[in-house]
Every structure is written in C-alpha cells, then in structure tokens.
Amino acid sequence: MDEQLQEYILGHIDPEPPHLRQLARDVNVYLLYPRMCSGHLQGRILGMLTHMIAPLNVLELGTYAGYSALSIAEALGPDARLHTIEIDDEMEDFILQRFAQSPAGSKISLHIGDARDILPGLGDIVWDMVFIDANKRCYCEYYEMILPHVRPGGYILADNTLWDGKVVDPAHNHDAQSRGIMAFNDLVAADDRVEKVILPLRDGLTIIRKKN
Ligand SMILES: C[S@@+](CC[C@H](N)C(=O)[O-])C[C@H]1O[C@@H](n2cnc3c(N)ncnc32)[C@H](O)[C@@H]1O
Predict the structure, then answer these.
(1) What pLDDT score was predicted for residue 103?
(2) Residue 210: which region, alpha, beta or left (left: phi > 0; alpha: psi -120 to 50)?
(3) What angle do CA 109, 115, 116 make, to 5 degrees?
(4) Alpha carbon distance 117, 114 (integer Å)
(5) Which residues line ligand 1 (CB under 6 A)?
(6) Residue 101, SS3 per DSSP
C-alpha cells in the first residue's frame, strides 16, 4: 500500500498499545524475518474481528513473536482462551516473556511443536475462531485437520492468501509457498461446507465461515 495512505490509516485507527509497540521494536532488533510479525493495522483488525466473533475458544497456527496472539487475546472475553502453536522452539523464551509482560498474556496457552502433531492432542476443543498463519505450504493440510473441529457458525481466518500478488503472477508463482497458497485458495473456493471472502488487506486475509 502507498506509504502516505498507510500513515493516514494508522493515524485514524486505534493507537497501537505500548506493549505491542515495544514488541514490534524488539522483533526488529532481535529477530530474523521481522516482516512475519503482524503490525499495528493487522493487530487492530484481528482484535476487531475477535470482538465481532466473541469466541470462547480460539486457535492460532504460527505464533512467531506473539504479536497477533496478543492482539487477539486482548479482545477476548473473561472466560475465553487462545491456544497458539509455534514450531520454532528457539522462539519459546521470547514469546513467553512478552506474554508475561502483557495484560492479556494469561489468556494464552503456547504450544511448541508442529501444528500437525499438536492439533490431535487438542482434539476435544471446539473452535469458535481459528487464525491460520503458519507454513504456507501446509495451509490445505491445516484446513482439513481443523474444519471438523470448528463449530458450525465458527470462523477460520487465513493470512497471506494473496501472497504478494503472486497468486495471479505466473512468472513468480512456481515456488512451493505460492503453490501452497494457490491450492488452499482453490480448495476453499470449491468447498460447499463454508462461506468465504478474501479481503485485499495487507497480504490478503481470507475469512471463512463454517455453515450451520
Ligand atoms: C508468519 S509467522 C506468524 C506471525 C504471527 N502470527 C503474527 O502475525 O505476528 C509464521 C510462523 O509459523 C511458524 N510455523 C511454520 N510452520 C509451522 C507449523 N507446522 N506448526 C507451527 N508453527 C509453524 C513459523 O516458525 C513462524 O514463526
């Protein structure tokens, strides 16, 4: 997005809470791949969607530094809980420290491991809302594992579903991540079990509602 427009938007939405601003700074100073971190706009969007859905049980695949997890958790009601899964065990201390320093951190359970191994152990939980933001190559697999455990009327949000526009760029979409995202978009588009819409936000955010 045009930088001026981006600044304008950030100046006309709720400000970034100080602990999340600090987290975003720490990501840029201490971590590789800071682009993976949700920022001010995406965090406020996730918080707003969480308020709208009012979920009790939320699942996130791909914690990274915990920015999206905290943005979701701060919008949860008093009895609600977020389970977030991160495969990179080197992130564990960084994430847990930030959760401990944040007002909503106590509403989050962090699971370290491959989501595909962790998910069966969480099988009894019925999800009201799921945020898929892990390995782009595996979105189809995550989706098929998760959908049976989403309550009818519940939501799956999938991030990066336009993948920098590569989904419509045959010159640059032959890599495994692009193919993973394109296969996921095709799968969801053809799936009668769900309603779906792609928001052209940032890198694309698909909102999927499991039919009643
Ligand atoms: C885009 S980042 C997540 C960003 C974070 N949700 C946010 O918005 O701030 C993707 C993360 O998924 C993790 N990941 C990749 N494959 C995974 C898997 N199979 N299970 C769990 N986490 C995975 C990566 O290590 C990385 O930290």
Answers:
(1) 87
(2) beta
(3) 140
(4) 5
(5) 36-38, 61-62, 64-65, 67-68, 85-88, 114-116, 133-135, 138
(6) coil
What is the rounded distance in angstroms from the CA atom of residue 166 to the CA atom of residue 169?
Answer: 5
Distance CA 44, CA 75 (A): 10
What would the 3-class secondary structure string for 7-32 be? Answer: HHHHHCCCCCCHHHHHHHHHHHHHCC
Please give the DSSP secondary-structure letter assigned to residue 172: S
Q: What tens digit of pLDDT does each residue of 133-148 get?
A: 999 999 999 999 999 9
Tell me the longest C-alpha to C-alpha distance in the chain. 48
Phi first, then psi, for residue 24 (nearest 5°) are -60, -40
Band (pLDDT 50/70/90 cuts) for residue 15 is: very high
Q: What is the pLDDT, as a whole number, of residue 141?
A: 98
The pTM score is: 0.98
The rounded Å distance from CA 170 to ligand 1 centre is 26
Classify domain 3-210 by CATH number.
Answer: 3.40.50.150
Pairing of β 57-61 and β 81-86 = parallel
